[in-house]
Specification:
95 residues
């Protein structure tokens, strides 16, 4: 197999360049291995998702309060619908 002119010009010429190239390759490989580990670490991904869900749940009261302050009608309507559904289920369960 023959090498082209461009391949020869990118090859390290000195021992120091070769060692530096090896170290760079090791660093790149370590970074790739870490990225793969992060991608397939299901425990860490689950913790991350759980953390974001917890953050969203913590924001619900503030969002509900802001919604109530701006327009309480949708919240009252949702509550009335929920109570109505409970009453219908209770009423149909007595039959």
């Amino acid at each position: 197999m023959t090498t082209t002119q461009s391949e020869q010009s990118t090859a390290p010429e000195t021992t120091e360049e070769l060692l530096a190239d090896i170290e760079q390759t090791r660093a790149d490989l370590a970074q790739t291995a870490q990225a793969l580990n992060d991608k397939f670490d299901m425990k860490q991904r689950a913790r991350s998702v759980a953390g974001s869900v917890q953050e969203q749940v913590r924001q619900v009261p503030a969002r509900a309060s802001a919604q109530w302050d701006s327009d309480p009608v949708p919240i009252v309507a949702a509550g009335a619908t929920f109570v109505s559904a409970l009453l219908v289920m209770a009423w149909s369960g007595r039959r």
